[in-house]
Amino acid sequence: MSRSRIVIVGAGFAGYQAARTLSRQFRGAAEIVLVNPNDYFLYMPLLPEVSSGILEPRRVSVSLAGTLPRVRLVLGEVDGVDFDRRHIHYVNPEGQGGELRYDRLLLTVGSVNKLLPIPGVAEHAHGFRGMPEALYLRDHVTRQVALAASTDDPAEAEARCTFVVVGAGYTGTEVAAHGKLFTDSLARQHNRPPLGVPGLRDDRRPRWMLLDIAPRVLPELDERLSRTAHRVLRKRGVDVRTEMSVKEATKDGVLLDDGEFIPTHSLIWCVGVRPDPLVEDIGLETARGRLVVDEYLRVPGQPDVMACGDAAAVPDLTRPGEFTPMTAQHAVRQGKVAARNLAASYGYGAPRAYKHRDLGFMVDLGGVQGAANPLHVPLSGPFANLVTRGYHLAAMPGNRIRVLADWALDGLLPRQAVQLGLVRSWSVPLESSSPETARVPEPEPQAEPDSKSEPKSEPDSKSKSEPESAAASEPASEPER
C-alpha cells in the first residue's frame, strides 16, 4: 500500500515551515511534496540588503533540498487544481507541464505586487517581491550613478541620481534607507576626477524620495517607531513626503498628486501586496481576494484542502471579525499550525485553532540604525539595529554564518560598485504573477520544414509568465513581513 501524499504549494514562510514541521512529525510515514518555482526559500526581510550590496543573493536563499531532507521537491509553478480528481497541474521551469495526485493539499502560494490604476506605473515602475527584482534594482542603481557621473548634462545627472520609492511600509522604508547609504557610497567612488572632467559633484549627490498616502511612515507600527524611522531618514537626506503619491509615471519621471513633476529614471513600487492570482483561478470562495478558511485553516467544502499565509483569509481570533495581517510573523506560525492540523487528520495529535498576538515588529534602517518594539518595548538606534539583526539570524533556517560574514565585511570594506547585468528591465515587469522568477523571452516560432529539408528540433525551453491585470483599486499599507 502506497504512502499517503501531502502536497504543499509554495515555499514561502508558511509553506517552508509547514514542510519542515510535517517532515519532522511523520519521519517518512507520509510522502511530503513541496511544489515551488525555485529550489530555495527566500528570506525576504533581508532582501533590501541584497539590493543595496550588503549581502550576496545566496545568503538570503536557503536551499530547500539541503534543509528539508525528508521532503520531495518538485520545481514548478502550479496553474490549476482539480479538486474532484485530487490533482494539481504545474509547469516546470522549462515549460513542461505535469500533474501530481494529492491526499491532502496545503495552499501557501503567497502574494504578488499590488497594482493601482495609475497611468504609466505598470510600464515604468518595478516592484520588490523577489530575488530577480532585488538584483535588477542593485544593477540599475549602480548603473544610474555611473551614467550620472559620466555626463556633462546637469539635468540628466539629476534625473539619473533621483530615486522615487512609493509606499512607506516595511519594504519601502527599508529600501529607501538602505538605498540612500548605497548610492552615497557609489557617489563617493565616482567623485574622484580632476577639475574639468565629468564626475559627481557635490550638487549632484543622489536623491531619494519616499512617498505614501498615509499621514506617517510605517503606519502599521507604534507612532514612536514611526517618528524614529522618519527622523533617521530625514537626517540621512531622504525626502519623505506623506499624504502624497504618484498621479502619473512616464519614461522621463513621475507626476505627483500636487502637480510637481520629478525627473527620474527609477520608480520603485512598494505599495503593498495582493494574493497570488492562483487564488482567483481555482474558483474557491474568497474574502478580500484571499481564500476563505476557518480558524483551523481548513477550506470550507474541501475536507482535504487547507490554506494559510498571504493567500488565506485567516480569522484573527484576537480581533473578532478581522483577518490576520499578511506578515511573515503570521505566515510562519500559520505554517506550523497547518502542519499540526494536517498531521491530526491522520491521527497524530488533535487539531487546534490558529491564534497569535503579535510580538512586536522590527525595521532595519541601515548602517547602525533601527526601530523595533520587541514584546512591545520601543527601541531605537544601534541597540534596535542589533536586536533586529539578532532576530533575523535566529529566524533564518540556514546561512547564518555567511550572513554574519557579509555584515562584517560591509563594516570593513567599501561597497562594490559592480553591475553584472544578469537581470534586465523587461524581465521583471511590475505586472507579473511570478515575481520570484525572471521573465525570459518567448522562443521564436520555427518555420515549417519543407518536404526536402531536415526537420528542425524544437526549442528546449519555453517561457510561462503571463501578466496579471491590476486587481486592486485602493492603496494599501499592509506590512509585508
UniProtKB/TrEMBL annotation:
The superkingdom of the source organism is Bacteria
Comp. bias intervals (Low complexity): 468-481
Record bears the keyword NAD: yes
Region named Disordered = 431-481
InterPro entries associated with the record: FAD/NAD-bd_sf, FAD/NAD-binding_dom, NDH-2
Q: Where is the composition biased (Basic and acidic residues)?
A: 449-467
Keyword list (alphabetical) reads: FAD, Flavoprotein, NAD, Oxidoreductase
Domain FAD/NAD(P)-binding residue range list: 5-335
The record's similarity note reads:
Belongs to the NADH dehydrogenase family.
**What's this protein's name?**
FAD-dependent oxidoreductase
Q: Which organism is it from?
A: Streptomyces iconiensis
